[in-house]
Specification:
By secondary structure, this protein is an alpha/beta fold. Helix content is 38%, strand content 15%. The N and C termini lie close together (10 Å).
Length: 370
């Protein structure tokens, strides 16, 4: 079986598919990652074969003149994803027609379902978190019409043949009827792991704002605010940042450890709490590790992830508009002081471990081509 993997050109979209892609490869199937030219090097770090295809599109034009008060965030978001897909659709259609048996794509990679539909082959949408895109389909899918019209596909339907769902049930929203559960196995590439000190007598708290915020915003001010708050609590703090972002933190309080480009799943098992912005990767990694969360969402699916963590009782939601040192300290004390949060977070992790491993989905994917 020949599997074509395609994602929006960001590692946060590609990496969640890597364990499944490697399971298929080790089962003897051919796997190729179709990547935009500028994303090919990053995609190649997964160890999977990469085909640079399509055009690099500057989809940031969708955000020119953006005013948060205008209320057009959804329209701009979908234009960004649509423009990116339009730059790659023709190349993916050609690959799907000439080479692939199945297409795997992430929920924001809309050229993937188009290519599979045009080529007449099955496809699987691989989620990277709560199924935010399906929940928002009434507002979002009509905005994909220009892409679907280009290929004569009628009404937009970017779900594909089946949805593969790695999100624990306690955190998940509605998914399409044709959905297969999958265990979350965090993947963040290779790294040299630093030695962390043993127990200090204080609870260890992980703090991260994801890999992209600092690079996009040019600062890590929310992390600095959170650090000021955690400094009022008797805890040990470990800050995880992307490579090259350490300088954005400025001067730090004594005793704070900063780790650059270290996979979160190697840090969080020793933490009693993680404070973060609600990115899908951090949310599901914390869930898989059984760590309670304080989530400070700013936009989009961050709000969805934060709401689901709070609804599951595995953490608390702190609105971004209320982000102050006092609020962070209060939220951290609440979670650390109530054993129920840790118990429920452990329950979410246990449910994740009971879900099928990637290797168990290989046969199901093979059945799509019969």
């Amino acid at each position: 079986m020949r599997i074509l993997v395609s994602s929006y050109p960001a590692v946060s979209h590609l990496y969640p598919m890597v364990p499944l892609a490697w399971a298929l490869r080790t089962a003897g199937h051919e796997v190729r990652v179709a990547a935009a030219p500028s994303f090919a090097t990053a995609a190649g770090r997964t160890g999977l074969p990469v085909l640079p295809r399509g055009e690099d599109v500057d989809a940031t034009v969708a955000w020119a003149g953006f005013d948060p008060r205008a209320g057009d965030r959804t329209a701009r978001t979908m234009r960004m994803f649509r423009l990116t897909a339009q730059g790659r659709a023709a190349a993916l259609v050609a690959l799907a027609r000439d080479w692939a048996d199945v297409v795997l794509f992430d929920p924001r990679e809309y050229a993937g379902p188009v290519a599979a539909a045009v080529a007449g082959i099955p496809s699987a949408r691989v989620l990277y978190g709560v199924d935010h895109t399906y929940a928002e389909r009434a507002a979002e899918w009509p905005l994909l019409a220009p892409l679907w019209d280009e290929w004569g596909l009628g009404e937009p339907d970017p779900v594909g043949t089946v949805t593969i769902d790695p999100c624990p049930a306690a955190l998940q929203l509605e998914t399409p009827a044709a959905s297969w559960p999958l265990r979350t196995i965090p993947y963040n590439g290779s790294a040299l792991l630093p030695a962390l000190a043993g127990p200090s007598g204080r609870a260890r708290v992980g703090l991260t704002w994801g890999a992209s915020f600092g690079g996009t915003a040019g600062h890590l001010d929310p992390v600095r605010v959170a650090l000021a708050g955690l400094g009022r609590v008797e805890v040990e703090v470990v800050v995880a940042v992307a490579r090259g972002q350490r300088e954005l933190l400025g001067e730090l309080p004594a005793g704070v450890r900063v780790l650059e480009s270290v996979p979160l799943h190697t840090i969080l098992p020793g933490c009693a709490l993680v404070v973060h912005q609600g990115g899908a990767g951090t949310t599901l990694t914390a869930a898989a590790c059984g760590v309670p969360q304080v989530v400070v969402p700013f936009k989009g699916d961050q709000l969805t992830h934060a709401g689901r963590v709070a609804a599951a009782g595995a953490g608390v939601l702190l609105p971004a508009a209320e982000l102050t040192p006092e609020a962070v300290a209060s939220a951290a004390l609440e979670v650390l002081g109530d054993a129920g949060y840790a118990r429920r977070a452990a329950g979410v992790a246990a449910e994740n471990r009971a879900r099928p491993a990637p290797v168990e989905l290989v046969r199901r994917l093979e059945s799509l081509t019969r």
